[in-house]
Design brief:
Elements: E1 19-32, E2 36-39, H1 40-44, H2 51-58, E3 62-65, H3 71-86, E4 95-99, H4 110-118, E5 124-128, H5 134-148, E6 153-161, H6 171-174, E7 179-193, E8 197-201, E9 209-210, E10 218-219, H7 221-243, E11 252-255, H8 260-270, H9 281-284, H10 291-301, E12 310-317, E13 321-328
Parallel strand pairs: 4-5, 4-6, 11-12
Antiparallel strand pairs: 1-7, 2-3, 6-7, 8-13, 9-10, 12-13
Helix pairs in contact: 3-4, 7-8
The chain binds acetyl coenzyme *A (ACO).
């Protein structure tokens, strides 16, 4: 069915309490990280720190650094891989949304740069600035476009190069971040569904994580840590309550990769086994809006993704903004 045509007659009855509507189903994933790797040992030569301190406090062992490569170039590589994985041509895309806070140009936006490179001439192209919650934000918007009937095929990208925004003399922040991009393609499918995405914001607390133009990222690490530990389990419970799915039935919690101790703390608060929280923070650090789609892509390509799996995505970051989504693979 074309996205321009009215919804047809559904061929099955929904389960009690559910309705069947067109909703976005994950059709393919892709990701890209730059070739240059800076290990913790490399950072030992730049600031007073140690591999042991970084690993123990964050779980990070290395990060990929973009160098000359732009956010849009990384986004294009992730996008091409996602389209190939989904078996969808760029000309079939109705919408491209990019979550990013570190694009080199103020305009044109990254989504338009991606559109131009991949030839997605039919797509509307928008960027969303929501820091590390950027991918969650574009995921929710992509779903809303599909559910409203305005789009059938949507490309969602999270891409960031925070290595350009951190002060490489500040050991309190520079050890945390890395660069990369991840993408997924959502396609409209008639399915039993409920509204299962939530984004929250608290501008009053924004001061704990800031980056003004021409300056470096400033962070109150402990405040951000405490905020994540309280808000992430809360918003996950909120979406699961709305989806009427108990925590125990979730197969995987794909969380923003900011700090391994935060992920452990969320698992503990949800009383869920740590094994259900896949992580790649050791290899990439915190890639901001890219972390969730990169992890989703690894989940998909490693064969761990199975049809029907119940997945939770959750992210948090500057704003302050946090959110979660429930989806079935
Ligand atoms: N190497 C060695 N020592 C360090 C380093 C380092 N890289 N950084 C800080 N220290 C020292 C501090 O100076 C302090 O020393 P002191 O006790 O002598 O004063 C000591 O280690 C403890 O410092 P804390 O800041 O209390 O360390 P903490 O355990 O809180 O870990 C960290 C710091 C890793 C930053 C943690 O607070 C954290 O991960 N917070 C969350 C940050 C985050 O996720 N930010 C991204 C959000 S997403 C976005 O939108 C961008």
């Amino acid at each position: 069915m074309s996205f321009l045509e009215p919804a047809g007659v559904f061929d099955r009855e929904p389960a009690p309490g559910l309705k069947i509507i067109e909703s976005g189903k994950n059709a393919g994933t892709g990701s890209y990280v730059p070739e240059t790797i800076w290990k913790n040992e490399d950072l030992e030569k730049m600031v007073e720190t140690s591999d042991i301190w970084i690993r123990e406090r964050t779980g990070i062992g290395a990060r990929h650094i973009a160098g000359e490569e732009t956010v849009a170039q990384m986004a294009v590589k992730a996008a091409r891989r996602a389209l190939e994985n989904a078996g969808i041509c760029s000309t079939e895309l109705d919408l491209i949304l990019v979550g990013t806070s570190s694009s080199e140009s103020i305009f044109p936006n990254t989504a338009c740069l991606v559109q131009d490179e991949i030839g997605a001439f039919r797509a509307a192209c928008l960027d969303v600035s929501a820091a590390c919650t950027g991918f969650l934000a574009v995921y929710e918007l992509g779903q809303l476009y599909i559910r409203s009937g305005k789009a059938k095929n949507v490309l969602l990208i999270g891409a960031d190069a925070l290595s350009r925004l951190v002060d490489w003399h500040d050991r309190g922040t520079c050890i945390l971040f890395g660069d990369g991009a991840g993408a997924i393609v959502l396609t409209a499918e008639e399915q039993e569904t409920k509204a299962c995405e939530k984004i929250h914001s608290d501008g009053e607390k924004g001061v704990s994580l800031t980056c003004e133009k021409g300056t470096y990222l400033q962070m109150d690490g402990r405040a951000v840590f405490q905020f994540a530990l309280s808000r992430v389990p809360e918003v996950i419970r909120e979406v699961l309550k709305e989806a009427e799915v108990p925590v125990e039935e979730i197969d995987a919690f794909i969380l923003h990769q900011a700090n391994s101790r935060i992920i452990d703390g969320v698992a503990k608060r949800l009383k869920a086994p740590k094994e259900k929280f896949p992580r790649n923070i050791e290899a990439y650090g915190n890639t901001c809006a890219a972390s969730i789609p990169i992890l989703l892509d690894e989940w998909n390509r490693s064969g761990r993704a199975q049809k029907g799996q119940r997945i939770v995505l959750s992210g948090f970051g500057a704003g302050l903004i946090w959110g979660a989504a429930y989806l079935e693979w």
